[in-house]
Specification:
About 35% of the residues lie in helices and about 25% in strands. It is an alpha/beta fold. Helix 6 packs parallel to helix 10 (about 315-325).
């Protein structure tokens, strides 16, 4: 399968360059005008040229954003037929890939993905008289202005911002400053190398809490490589897990119908009506097309349908600063329901085969077991050769019990697969 849970993603090799050319041509088969952007990886410019070459060969008009976050490219797609972002998101620098968008910012649906996979096997080249053309556009400024129209700080705040040397570096520092925040920037340059692991996990950010406390900051904002994700810290220097960040946004915006994934905490169901989807922001955005007023994943993807159906970590960053200017984020978090939630992952050479042995219809959708006091989920990663186990319980003992049940089920499946 070419597409994973969030676009096409794999380790860089010559085959990925050829694939980018073919994906570009296939995308242009159904879109006359296409926006293209890239993240900061050293291989992204090459892949951008390849995908644009494919689009031009099929006669498309291409609008190049250069380095820009994924949500910036999705925002610009509203004026054309499709968008393409060159990125591997939170994966290490050795990975790269492509995400495809509709004009409303939503990711290509499963049906559209299947059409692309079929089309890349065909030759879509036009003759010399029908070749497309490319021009540059400033998508960053347009996205910045759109966010500033919707976000307003009630008082000046200080925020720590760590862009992880990713694409967020070209917009979020200036955006937050323009909104009225004093920004303490970390890793906010587009060096092409990540000074820290790109995924915004607490273990990758041990220095942030101390900086918040020393500088008396109201919050911290953390991006991944393409800034579709945003994680955060409160004013006490505590990392905010994704489940409670989801609840914080829903509470502040007064959203009562929330779409989230099967690996999110059951605590969310105590603050809103919830629809659950398989893991992957594309599934969340597709569900939001027909139901719900806010959605997100605990991994840091936040979707605001009135703004875009693409996860927008840049908008979320500005919104968090707005919240910090009006509320004590720490006090709000302390009032929220909280259960023990455990997450572990295991590198496995053939995750698909193991998941098949577990009885999963789709490896990345996984299998889920639950009872009244807890649950566990076993699923294959959509971006890496890993199997993840997530478990939650109303008590720490119950959560550990569920995690152990998941371990036992996974070991049994590995033995069957072997």
């Amino acid at each position: 399968m070419l597409f994973g849970s969030s676009g096409i993603r794999r380790e860089f090799d010559p085959g990925l360059v050829d694939l980018a050319l073919r994906v570009g041509a296939a995308t242009a088969g159904g879109a006359a005008g296409i926006v293209v952007g890239r993240d900061t990886r050293t291989t992204s410019e090459l892949l951008e040229h390849a995908v644009i070459a494919g689009m031009l060969s099929a006669g498309a008009t291409v609008y190049s954003c250069g380095i820009a976050p994924t949500p910036t490219v999705a925002h610009a797609t509203g004026c054309v037929d499709a968008g393409c972002m060159i990125t591997a998101s939170h994966n290490p620098e050795s990975y790269n890939g492509m995400k495809l968008f509709n004009p409303d910012g939503s990711s290509f649906t499963l049906r559209q993905q299947a059409a692309i996979e079929e089309a890349i096997e065909e030759t879509c080249l036009t003759d010399w008289e029908q070749q497309g053309h490319v021009s540059s556009v400033d998508a960053v400024e347009a996205h910045r202005e759109a966010i500033l129209d919707k976000v307003s700080l009630s008082r000046p705040v200080t925020t720590v911002l760590d862009c992880g040397n990713g694409a967020g570096s070209v917009i979020t520092p200036d955006l937050l400053g323009g909104a009225g925040a004093t920004v303490i920037g970390l890793n906010c340059n587009v060096s092409g190398r990540f000074a820290r692991p790109s995924e915004p996990l607490e273990t990758n950010l041990p220095y942030v809490g101390e900086i918040i406390r020393k500088r008396d900051a109201a919050c911290a904002v953390i991006h991944d490589g393409d800034a579709d994700r945003m994680m955060a810290f409160d004013e006490r220097g505590r990392y905010i897990d994704g489940d409670h960040l989801l609840m914080l946004f829903a509470s502040y915006l007064d959203r009562k119908k929330v779409v989230t994934t099967v690996d999110a905490s059951m605590a969310i169901e105590e603050v809103a009506e919830v629809h659950r989807t398989p893991v992957g922001d594309s599934f969340v955005s597709e569900e939001l097309l027909t139901w719900g007023d806010f959605g997100g994943e605990a991994s840091g993807s936040w979707i605001f349908p009135e703004h875009s159906y693409c996860p927008d970590g840049v908008y979320a960053a500005a919104l968090l600063c707005e919240i910090a200017s009006e509320w004590s984020i720490a006090e709000e978090l302390d009032r929220m329901p909280r259960y023990t939630l455990l997450r572990e992952s295991y590198r496995i050479p053939s995750p698909g085969a193991v998941m098949a042995a577990l009885g999963a219809d789709e490896p990345t959708h996984g299998v889920r077991f639950e009872d009244e006091d807890g649950w566990y989920l076993i699923r294959a990663s959509g971006t890496e050769p890993k199997v993840r186990i997530t478990a939650e319980g109303r008590t720490p003992k119950k959560a550990k019990e569920m995690l152990d049940l998941g371990h036992t089920a996974l070991e049994r499946a590995k033995q069957i697969q072997e």
